[in-house]
Amino acid sequence: MVHAWQNMHRKGRSELGPCNCVALEAYTTWELEDALAKMKQEKYMWEEKFHALSRKHEELQLDSRDKDALIELLEDRAVKRQRDP
Questions:
Q1: In this predicted model, what pLDDT tens digit does every residue of 71-81 receive, in sequence order?
Q2: pLDDT-derived band of residue 83, with 50, 70 and 90 as boundaries?
Q3: Average predicted confidence (pLDDT) for the chain
Q4: Contacts for 63-71 with beta carbons within 8 Å, 24 or more apart?
Q5: pLDDT for residue 32
Q6: Which residues contact 35 (CB under 8 A, 6 or more apart)?
Q7: DSSP H helical segments within the chain, as ranges?
Q8: DSSP letter string over 16-37?
Q9: Origin, by domain of life (predicted)?
Q10: Residues 50, 52, 55, 61, CA torsion sign
Q11: Whose CA is closest to 34, among 23, 26, 44, 45?
Q12: How far is CA 11 from CA 6, 37, 65, in A?
């Protein structure tokens, strides 16, 4: 490991450029592309979750309507039985 560190080529300040804390264009472009890719992936994930929950909500509404209709039918039968002894 010591030998590896001795063989490292150290760049001087002239090769690295001035320290002005401004990112180069290539890095900025890469960051933007990476951020956009992550945002698109997250958007797709949320859309999939939304559609899955929407389908489940519709199924539950249909099930609720069926149960409400059954309850009304049973209540009507119970009322008819009480009227006709």
A1: 999 999 999 88
A2: confident
A3: 86
A4: none
A5: 93
A6: none
A7: 2-6, 13-16, 25-83
A8: H--------HHHHHHHHHHHHH
A9: Eukaryota
A10: negative
A11: 26
A12: 14, 33, 74
Looking from the CA of 23 toward its CB, the CA atoms found within 13 Å total: 8
What's the pLDDT score for residue 10?
67
Chain centroid to Cα 75, Å, comes to: 44
Question: 31 CB contacts (<8 Å, ≥6 apart)?
Answer: 23
Tokens of 67: 């149960």
Q: Is the dihedral of CA 73, 74, 79, 85 positive or negative?
A: positive
